[in-house]
């Protein structure tokens, strides 16, 4: 949750650096409040280890950069989010299939295929990825 909240100031900072975007005083004040809240939560409430911290930083940086890039593509090509998603999802899926097992092994020290799939894990995975649950209601 702290990583999600820290994306707001990171996106603002990256847009300022990369696109020279300027924000109003109200927006900057709100971002400062969010950043202060993230800092307070991090100091008082969270245990941090090196792997988790590095993964969170990489995730925040990559997700923020992706949001900025996707937004600029949508403006540049005048396309909607679903059309853009239909073009980028296959590339993202292939990269996840190729890189995912290695990242998982680095983080857990075990290969995914060595995981003992219990009935609960299999059924919950099936329920969360069931086609009838993925449609918007």
Automatic annotation (TrEMBL):
<dbReference type="InterPro" id="IPR050186">
    <property type="entry name" value="TPT_transporter"/>
</dbReference>
<dbReference type="Pfam" id="PF03151">
    <property type="entry name" value="TPT"/>
</dbReference>
<feature type="domain" description="Sugar phosphate transporter">
    <location>
        <begin position="13"/>
        <end position="103"/>
    </location>
</feature>
<protein>
    <recommendedName>
        <fullName>Sugar phosphate transporter domain-containing protein</fullName>
    </recommendedName>
</protein>
<keyword id="KW-0812">Transmembrane</keyword>
<dbReference type="GO" id="GO:0016020">
    <property type="term" value="C:membrane"/>
</dbReference>
<dbReference type="InterPro" id="IPR004853">
    <property type="entry name" value="Sugar_P_trans_dom"/>
</dbReference>
<keyword id="KW-1133">Transmembrane helix</keyword>
<keyword id="KW-0472">Membrane</keyword>
């Amino acid at each position: 949750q702290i990583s999600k909240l820290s994306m707001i100031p990171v996106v603002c900072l990256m847009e300022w650096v990369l696109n020279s975007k300027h924000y109003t005083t109200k927006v900057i004040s709100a971002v400062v409040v969010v950043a202060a809240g993230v800092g307070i939560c991090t100091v008082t409430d969270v245990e941090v280890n090196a792997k988790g911290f590095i993964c969170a930083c990489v995730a925040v940086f990559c997700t923020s950069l992706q949001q900025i890039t996707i937004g600029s593509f949508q403006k540049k090509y005048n396309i909607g989010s679903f059309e853009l998603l239909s073009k980028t999802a296959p590339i993202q899926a292939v990269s996840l299939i190729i890189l995912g097992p290695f990242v998982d092994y680095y983080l857990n020290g075990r290969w995914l295929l060595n995981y003992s799939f219990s009935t609960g894990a299999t059924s919950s995975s099936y329920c969360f990825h069931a086609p009838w649950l993925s449609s918007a209601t």
